[in-house]
Amino acid sequence: VQLVESGGGLAQPGGSLRLSCAASGFTFSSADMSWARQGPGKEREFVAAISWSGREEYYADSVKGRFTISRDNDKKMVYLQMNSLKPEDTAVYYCNRNPPFASWGQGTQVTVSS
To answer: How far is CA 5 from CA 65, 75, 107, in A?
Structure first.
């Protein structure tokens, strides 16, 4: 199993970023997927999830209305469009299957600051 996140960086409050996750080593098209994040000094927390078909999406209350999860089963990719970013969104973002594999990718750092 390999999960490779990318697309993080520095954004200003109110800005946008799009995260990508390339998955391999498992049957992606039948796997529910999710994004989680871990802020400085905090536990890893759920951000968003998407069903294997892409028809169902779930979001943490803290990101609902601002973030959108999507997937491309042909490309084995999961995305997280993040809009109206806030400083409290600063974290390392990870993707994983839902329920998660024991091993996680390296994550991608998102920093929201002016």
So the answer is: 22, 14, 5
- Gap between the Cα atoms of 101 and 60, Å rounded: 20
Mean predicted lDDT score pLDDT of the chain: 97
pLDDT tens-digit map of 10-43: 999 999 999 999 999 999 999 999 999 999 999 9
CA distances (Å), 35 to each of 20, 63, 72, 81, in order? 10, 12, 15, 11
Distance from C-alpha of 73 to C-alpha of 17, rounded to nearest angstrom: 21
Which of 40, 20, 15, 48 is CA-nearest to residue 92? 40
Q: Provide the edge-to-edge strand list for the sheet that holds 2-6.
A: 2-6, 17-24, 77-82, 67-72
For the record, the structure tokens of 87 come out as: 């400083």
Q: In what order do the strands lie in the sheet with 57-59?
A: 9-11, 108-112, 91-97, 33-38, 45-50, 57-59
